[in-house]
Amino acid sequence: MRMFVGIGLPEECRTSIVRALSPVAETGLPVSWTRAENLHITLKFLGEVPDARVGELGGLLAESARGTGPFRLLVEGAGGFPTLSSPRILWAGVREPLDPVRKLHQNMENILAGAGFPREGRPFHPHVTVGRVRRRLPAGWTERFGGALSGKRFGEVPARSYQLYESRLSPSGSTYTVLVDVPFGG
Asked: Which domains are delineated in the chain?
């Protein structure tokens, strides 16, 4: 199974992002837009993991979350990876306070690395993936995307837990299923 770890977004936050993206998505850009129900704050992509490790992963994630209490994050603004001028991934930003999510991420990386999951080679940048670019974007797309999302607040996320998700790919897009919900604070 393809798995990742993330923090789910409240419905009003997802709706706000989709509403802001709607004018851009309707222009026919070569982007696979993330469906509203799949929007989440990405913490770690695990890749292909045997089904038999789901229970173990749940325990490892619980251990990672033990020292983290509930916190709130603000979803605001936009960007792209590796850059907004030449992106492969389009995202909505996650803003202050970032210390709790960074600490959680570091704990998770340390514990999962001890269980054989490779550490991420890039710096951690919490975000909500809103689209994946399929091919070169036309001139002027940055202004449309940036205008739709930059500087806009999409809502607060009351983070009380994080989730281990399964990601199933299909021609109509990915389907995410929560396998384990891990409350913060043990």
From this structure: 2-183 (3.90.1140.10)
